[in-house]
Amino acid sequence: MKEFAFTPEWDGRTPLYEQLYRYVIDEIRLGRLREEDKLPSKRALAAHLGVSLSTVEGAYGLLTAEGYLRSVPRSGYRVCPVLPLGELPAPPPAPQEVPEPAAPVLDNCFSTGAVDTSVFPYASWARLNRDAVQEPELLQRGHPQGDLPLREALCAFLHQYRGVSCRPDQVVVGAGMEYLLDLLLQLLDPAQILGLEDPGYHSLYRSMENFRRPFVPIPVNGEGLDPHALAASGAELVYVTPSHQFPLGVTMPAGRRTELLRWAYERPGRYIIEDDYDSEFRYASRPIPAMQGLDGGNRVIYIGTFSRSIAPSIRVAYLILPDELLADYRARFAHGASTVSRYEQRVLARFLSSGQYARHLRRVGNLYRGRCAALTSALESAFPDGKISGNDAGLHLLFTLPGREDGEMVRAAGEAGYRAHGLGEYCRGTSPRPGTLVLGFAGLEAERAAAAVSDLKIAIDRS
Fold first, then answer.
1. What is the mean pLDDT of residues 61-81?
2. Is 268 within 8 Å of 224 (Cβ atoms)?
3. Would you say which domain of life the source belongs to (predicted)?
4. What is the pLDDT of residues 129-170, one digit of tens each?
5. All domains of the chain, ordered by start, with CATH?
6. pTM for the full predicted model
C-alpha cells in the first residue's frame, strides 16, 4: 500500500472522507490510477491511514456512486474507465476590473415607460393573494394556455371595454410581451416579411434583428400606418398600434383600419398583429374599439399586457390567436406549461371578474389625465411657439419646437438633469417632425410639471 500516498489533513476544515474522495479522483484524472487498478480494502486503508472505517466507506461510496470506482464481489474496488485529463493548465489570472465611467444620474420623470406604482391596489391584491393561497389545486400543473378562469375573465373584459370578439380557447397567457412575441413568430412563416411602423418601438426592431426575422419599415402618417406603402413593401405580416400609435400618438380611423383588413384578405397567410399596449387610457373620448372586433375572418392577432395598467412587474400578457394559428399552436406547444404562476393567474382573474380592475383603471386614468393636463399646460405657457400632439390618450405626448433639432433638445434636457428622447430616435427613415421630444407623463407628478418644464426652457434657450 506504499503507492497510496495520501496524507490526511487534521485541521478540521475539510472532512476526512471528502479529502480521500478528492485524492482518488485526482489520481484517476491524472492517470496515476488506471482502469482496473485495484484499490486497498476498506479495512486495510483505514488501518493504513489511521482513520475510521466509516471515513473510508463514505469516500468509496461517493466514488462508486459517481462512476469512478466499481465494487467487484470477492475482489474489492477497481477503477472504472475514465479518460485521464493529465496536468491541467493553471487558470488565467483574473482580469483587472476596469470601472465603468460614471453615467450622469438623470431624472426619468419624462420616461415613456414610467408607471406610478403609488396607485397600485395593495390591499385588494394582498387579499386576493391570501384567498388564492388557500386553494391547494393551484399547486398542480395548469393549462398550457393559462387557467380557464383567467382566460374567461379576459374575454369578458376585452369584449366589454375593447370590442374584442374571442373565445377563451383562443387566448394564450404568457410571461410578458417578449415571450409571446417569440412564440408567435414560431407560428408564422419565417420567410414572410414583417412590416413595422416607422417611427415605432425600438425594442420591436431589436427583437426582429435578434430573431433574424425579415422586416421592412412602413411609414406612419397622421392616420397611422400607410396602407399603400404597406402594399408596395412586399410584407405579408404587419405589426400595428392602431388605438394610440407609438410614438406619434395618432389613432387610426375606421376607414384606414378597413383598408388594412382588406390588404390582409387579399392573400392567404397574411396577418395583422394588433398591439393594444395602452388603449385603456383616453382623455378626450371613450376607448376606440380594437381592430380585432372588426375582423370577422380571423386575420387579426391581438396582443395585450397588464404591465402599463397595473405595474411593470406584473409579467402577464396575452395573445388572441385566429383559429388557423390556434391549431398550429396546440400541435406544437400544447405539451408545455403556462409561464405564469397559477397563483398570479387566479389573483388576476378575480381582480378582473370582480370589477376591481375596472375601478382601478378609472382611478389611475383620472390620475394620468391630470398629469397630462398639467404637463400640457406647463409646455403651452413656457413655449408659446411649441406644438403639442398625441395628448388625448396614452401615457406620452409629442412636443415640437419649430426650427430646433431633436439632438439639440435632448442634450439640453440632459444638461437640465432630465432624460428625454427625440422623435428621430424612433425613426428608420426621415423624422416626420424635426425638433420633437417624446415626453411621458405617467411618472411626472402634476405638482412638479411646471418646475420641470421651466428647467427645460432655461436649458433649451441656453443651447
1. 91
2. no
3. Bacteria
4. 999 999 999 999 999 999 999 999 999 999 998 999 999 999
5. 16-79 (1.10.10.10), 122-357 (3.40.640.10), 359-462 (3.90.1150.10)
6. 0.81
